[in-house]
User: Fold Triosephosphate isomerase from Bradyrhizobium cytisi.
Amino acid sequence: MTDAIRPLIAGNWKMNGLKAAAAEFDAMLNGAAEVAGKADLLVCPPATLIAAFADKAHGKKVAVGAQDCHPKASGAHTGDIAAEMLADAGATAIIVGHSERRADHGESDALIRQKAEAVWRAGAVAIVCIGETQAQRDAGQTLDIVRGQLNGSLPDGSTAANLVVAYEPVWAIGTGLTPTSEDVEQIHGFIRELLTSRFKADGVAMRILYGGSVKPSNAAELMAVKNVNGALVGGASLKAADFLAIAKGCP
Ligand code: 13P
Assistant:
């Protein structure tokens, strides 16, 4: 049944991209129709570029998203951006709980859950990231960490339409290392069991993305793994050719 889930290839540009990056985004828009049969495409540029990219993407086959939001809709929170503001700029999905935010900003599961609810309040889709560190993996804690983060970060009311899970082992991010297909199958299968037991039919249909050093050369193998419903791509999403090649690798 999960085989029927349409893959999502999401690019997380992180803190990369000036106005001149619009040319690369144009190349993604131009190539998108060719891969539209394979996967939905989403690009999450830095917040400064969302409005301009969303204007360009209007009516095209690439959606525009954001990388984080504040849980509140407005208020005295200098430097923060509300989900409503991101949606107003054109973001239709917002990543929350990325491991870089968990590490750099000490974000807790409880805060991430609030952020996911803020994303819904703004009418967007929450992409909630989870994943173990190298030390946790070495200690044999991977499944415990995944279970704890899922339980703590996903709000009640999560559905296949309003929430996407991204499993990103921290040790695989930006390192060129990836888990084996067997490891990915085991962990995604475990995530699917937990989602199904908590969210029933929605858990069966919810997308589970893999993230961490996805590139054109390994995308087809990773995307073919059971319960992998797309990818959250960092570095390789900055180049249109690589990003589109990853989407082409979807089964
Ligand atoms: P890389 O693809 O650069 O490893 O980054 C993965 C990631 O963190 C996406 O959110």
